[in-house]
Amino acid sequence: MLVHSKRLWLLASIFLFVGVFSSPTLNFQYHRYDDLSQYLHDVAAAYPNMTSLYSIGETLRRHKLWVLEMSTAPDSTLGIPSVKLIANIHGNEAAGREVLLHLIQFFVTNYSCSETVRWLLDNTRIHILPSLNPDGFEVSVEGKCEVGPGRENARLVDLNRSFPDYFQNNTKPRQYETQAIQDWLTNNTFVLSASLHGGALVANYPYENFMENTDMTQPYPPSVSPDDDVFRHLATVYASTHPTMHLGYPCNNMDREFQGGIINGAAWYPLIGGMQDYNYIFHGCVEITLEISCCKYPLARELPALWDENREALLKYIYQVHQGVRGVVRDNTTHQPIRTAGLKIEGRDSYFRTTSRGEFWRILLPGTYHLQVHAAGYEPQTIKFIVSPKKQKEHITTTWLDVNMPPVVRQATVVSDQVLLLTNLPEEAPMQHSTTTQKMVGVTNGQKLSPTPFINVTATSMDLVKLSNTLDAESHDRREQLPFMETAESGGTIQTNMKHMFVVLSVNFVSVLCMYLHECTKMC
Ligand SMILES: [Zn+2]
User: Fold this and answer.
1) Where does the record place the catalytic residues (predicted)?
2) How far is Cα 102 from Cα 128, in angstroms, rounded to an integer?
3) CB contact at 8 A, 71 and 118
4) List 287, 291, 309, 359, catalytic entry
5) Is 418 domain-assigned?
6) In a shared domain, residues 301 and 282
7) Does residue 309 carry a catalytic annotation?
8) Cα(93) to centroid of ligand 1, in Å?
9) What domain range is 377 assigned to?
10) Which of 121, 264, 348, 458 supports an S-S bond with 226, CB 3.0-4.6 Å?
């Protein structure tokens, strides 16, 4: 036994020895695209159990958008939240790009000697995209503190103005880089995010745009989001940990002071098509913008100080993903996870959804909340919970909720003795303002379903919910319940499953549709 232990110790020592001497070095200098790529590949090769490298897309100049994921949590562990950090969306704002490379170096070289690093990597998946605009960076100029070449991408488009915008129609065409971010967010669930910029010293949070009819006389009012308390907290955590950001000093005479080193984005200057509003509104990911240096592209000799100023702030910021609520949504009979269930904290008009494994997360400050959960084919649930201000050791705790959803027994309602219109709710959760396609899958004559062609009706899911609510109020007295699954089996014409929830639309709406549908008109 003793011999066996000695062998293990020897193997571990050799592994550590090889790891230390094969770990890549990182100097305080700017890394052009090839050097940055090489460094990330070297890290991924040296720390295969801690990191993985992937690309989310390619730019016009064929530069890959590299992301290094760092985590030691097993893939099978449920509830591990994902954080992403992005720099260099403006190619000439270069300090954040190097700061994130040093953050990578810090994590991979301190796992065995820093409890903070170990805890974060054991309990978090951290995705780092050091440069979202490598094409712009390649033409930008070191030492250029104000406006200079390289802010935009190779098509001369400002990437932080080219995302879909909820408040106003953004006519700017999608860029490779913005599309890559959109796909990344669609295929992954990120809970917390930050985008690092330069040219000011402030933490800026959503919203960064207003409704079109807002009075735009200066000073601009804040454009307040439903999670304003959370955003202000996150921005304050960063600014107050940074040695000077919290002082709120402007970088030049043209700018304003920032109380506490934070500011609402729209109150500073409103913009259309920004990335942080897009993250929050379209994907439920909480992102803020960190302006970390007065000079957009400071000289390389300033990089050690910049790294020192931002290291603790970044670590504390990542920690915030562990405050709030998380859990798993499951079918209460099969215990299978429910994917893309829609979730909402009561009183906060912002939505998020479960992963393919039924997981969900939401950053919340201490307090008492109600979680509302909706899933196609299940009875909606509302669950009261408390986010405790208490911490375990030095680590922030999260409230864990197991949400068990009872399947809906009756899935359709007859609204007249002649017509039943069935509409699939979208596969996706009812995210705010998403547009989806509903399908009319059948009409019924009395109790018997008859086949009908599929008809696509485009509507927002919010519209659908409103319509459904209206119908519930208006037609309560004259409708009767129809056990849909039984009818579908007897009719044999509708292919569906329990995850589809069916919503009955009003007879008036059916009549309008019938005017356009030959099949339907015959039956009406
Ligand atoms: Zn910027």
Assistant:
1) 291 (proton donor/acceptor)
2) 11
3) no
4) 291
5) no
6) yes
7) no
8) 6
9) 325-405
10) 348
